[in-house]
Amino acid sequence: SVLVPFAAKQLGIKYEKAEHAEVISSIGVASSMLQEEIEQTMIEPSPEKINQVYKKIHAMLVDKGAIPESIVINSEFVSDKSLLRVTAIGNVELDSAETSKNIFTLDDAKKRTSEIIEISKDLIDLSYETDHYFVFTGHIEVKKLFGKKTQHHILILDRYGKPKLSIKNGRIIQGGKITILEELDDYLESRHSEIAPKVYLLNDLNLVDYSSLIASSDIIDAVREELVNSEKAAVLIEL
């Protein structure tokens, strides 16, 4: 009751005090998220090696009781140490579709997105949707020195209204395997840069972070491997 108002004031955001705050702590413990981290020395990281670590950490969380579709995997490659650090977070069973009564409707999710990125709902579009995630794009007009420019803020929410990824200005490529690979390859080639942008992939169950990959060819290979068992997916690119 003391920390939240202070933090909200410092951050310049709104807050609401929860009803029955005295039981929040117990509920929080029961519905807490599981987390795992793997650090692995990798002299020459490749999509195949990274995907093996992804599958390993995903299986570890599932074995501990996390809902498979709730698991989010992020990775970071520390080049000076040749170290791949992979973290994964997943919700416990209490947050599953069978037991939760707080599943968001499309309108609920759009309202939450409006609150998070602080723009009108009228400027927000549903760009992609799976059984477990909403992907919204907010179109924000930004003033520049010689005019105005529209940025596309991408936000992924799970079905319980929890933010999973926020990209202040990004692009979405969606569709089947061939469409995604062709459009992604064309975009990466058009940049004429040896350093690839941050790329993420969202399929029915997983949100995968490829920001540890620097070469465009490695990103294409990693996305291709992840799409083997996916009929459709979306690739999100940070601009």
Q: What's the gist of this structure?
A:
Helices cover 29% and strands 33% of the residues.
Enumerate the spans where pLDDT stays under 50 for 5 or more consecutive residues: 95-99
CATH topology of the domain at 169-239: Methyltransferase, Cobalt-precorrin-4 Transmethylase, Domain 2
How would a crystallographer describe the biggest sheet? 7 strands, mixed
Structural class: alpha+beta
The order of strands across the largest sheet is 1-3-2-10-9-11-8
Number of DSSP strand runs: 11
Report the order of strands and helices.
Answer: HHEHEEHEEEEEHEEHE
CATH architecture of the domain at 169-239: 2-Layer Sandwich
Beta-strand percent range = 25-35%
Counting DSSP H or I runs of 4 or more residues, the number of helices is: 6
Helix share, percent: 25-40%
Radius of gyration over C-alpha positions, nearest whole angstrom: 19 Å
Q: Regarding CATH, which class of the domain at 169-239? A: Alpha Beta
3D shape:
globular
Description:
With 239 residues, the chain is of the alpha+beta class. Among the domains are: 61 residues; 71 residues, Tetrapyrrole methylase, C-terminal domain (Methyltransferase, Cobalt-precorrin-4 Transmethylase, Domain 2). The protein is built from six helices and eleven strands. The strands form two sheets. The chain has a seven-stranded mixed beta sheet, with helices on one face. The protein has a four-stranded antiparallel beta sheet with strand order 4-5-6-7, covered by helices on one side.
